[in-house]
Design a protein that fits this description.
By secondary structure, this protein is an all-alpha fold.
């Protein structure tokens, strides 16, 4: 893959996923404008994640049947509709509907990652997935910066109008600039769906999936709840200032863009463990928000670095293990991501309402520790299975 072939998919991923997360720095104003109570505004993010979950099951497996380039362009056109409806919403119900559509077709991200993996030679698969996945994290975090700034200028609706326009432009660019994804046969959709659910019986897949669930629940606990304490005592930050914390997270995430190369070099398992330890430790700094913003910024950098490393490593491991089903595998894996993100978004506002930021901090750290525990358990299990397989293959004397 050339540089341009990697960068355009990265931009596609960033814009598509931004529609799901753009509301995080403006949850308060959205709720006030649309009449949603403060302890329920986390659902503006969670409903997009639930739409995303449906898309992962029903739409992403189509990538193993259809030309992924055309599929990417078509889904981008529909991605544009979600933010447009949300921006024009006169009521909470309409906004929730627009966010659900944005989430449903944001699964173009997984089709794009699978497209990238299928076009990459094995020695460069991790590197290319790392570049494209960095676009996902850039979109999640960059959306906070842009949405926060536009909110101060045009209100919370401005960011959603901008995302709709960008998705429309990318729809055309993908058809013109991306190489085609030629298919030699069309496998029945029902068979592809059966293979989707069959993945949930595989040990490697379940281990990586559970890590992703807790990983992104912890990630969402931070980013779906952070605007609430920053807007209140003692900080009283504006939406633009809150959105700027996305820059700190973006620095950490992009710093891990070479995580795929570590996977190409065979270090994915060890690097995943180290990154999860850093994730747990990042919450110690994030918990210092009550007395200083400096440890919070440092914790955000470390947390997003760790999340990116683990996420890229998971995708590299799974696309290598199941190369004949890249779209289906990525889609099934992201079910754990979607459930974890939705759970974190819904739980963090409840925790904050009940116990303030310390409650959200304990929740995020506990979820990170669960991810580490799953890695430790499954890594040991995988080592025993691998050793047993090698002993069976070794010549007998």
């Amino acid at each position: 893959m050339g540089r341009g072939t990697r960068l355009l998919p990265a931009v596609v991923c960033g814009v598509a996923v931004a529609g799901v997360y753009a509301g995080q720095p403006v949850l308060g104003p959205m709720g006030d404008d649309l009449g949603v109570p403060r302890d329920s505004v986390g659902w503006f993010v969670a409903v997009g994640q639930l739409g995303y979950l449906i898309g992962l099951v029903l739409l992403v497996p189509l990538g193993d049947r259809l030309d992924r380039r055309r599929l990417i362009a078509g889904h981008l056109g529909l991605v544009a509709a979600g933010p447009a409806v949300t921006a024009a919403a006169p009521s909470a119900g309409v906004a929730f509907g627009g966010l659900a559509v944005a989430g449903l077709f944001a699964v173009v991200v997984q089709t794009t990652v699978a497209y990238t993996a299928s076009l990459s030679p094995p020695a460069e698969r991790g590197r290319n997935i790392g570049v494209v996945t960095s676009g996902v994290v850039a979109g999640i975090l960059g959306a906070r910066v842009v949405t926060g700034a536009l909110s101060d200028l045009w209100g919370w609706r401005g960011g959603y109008f901008a995302l709709a326009a960008l998705a429309s432009i990318l729809c055309v660019l993908c058809l013109v600039a991306l190489p085609p994804d030629v298919r030699t046969g069309a496998e029945p959709y029902a068979r592809i769906l059966r293979s989707f659910f069959g993945l949930f019986t595989r040990l490697l897949f379940l281990g990586r999936g559970l890590i992703a669930f807790f990983l992104f629940a912890s990630f969402s606990t931070l980013w779906s709840g952070l605007a609430l304490p920053l807007a209140g005592e003692p900080w009283h930050l504006s939406e633009t200032q809150i959105g700027l914390f996305g820059i700190a997270g973006l620095a950490g995430a992009l710093g891990a863009a070479r995580a795929g190369r570590w996977g190409d070099a065979g270090h994915a398992g060890r690097v995943t463990g180290i990154a999860l330890v850093l994730l747990v430790g990042s919450w110690l700094a994030i918990g210092g928000l009550g007395w200083s913003l400096v440890p919070l910024a440092a914790g955000v950098v470390v947390l997003d670095f760790a999340v990116q490393v683990v996420h890229v490593g998971n995708q590299h491991a799974l696309t290598t293990a199941f190369p004949e089903r890249t779209s289906t595998t990525i889609g099934a894996y992201m079910v754990f991501y979607s459930l974890g993100s939705a759970a974190g978004a819904a739980a963090t506002t409840r925790s904050f309402a009940a116990a303030g930021w310390p409650g959200s901090t304990v929740l995020g750290a506990a979820l990170a520790f669960c991810a580490l525990a799953v890695w430790f358990t499954t890594a040991r299990r995988a080592t025993r299975v691998s050793a047993g397989a090698k002993s069976q293959l070794s010549p007998r004397r």
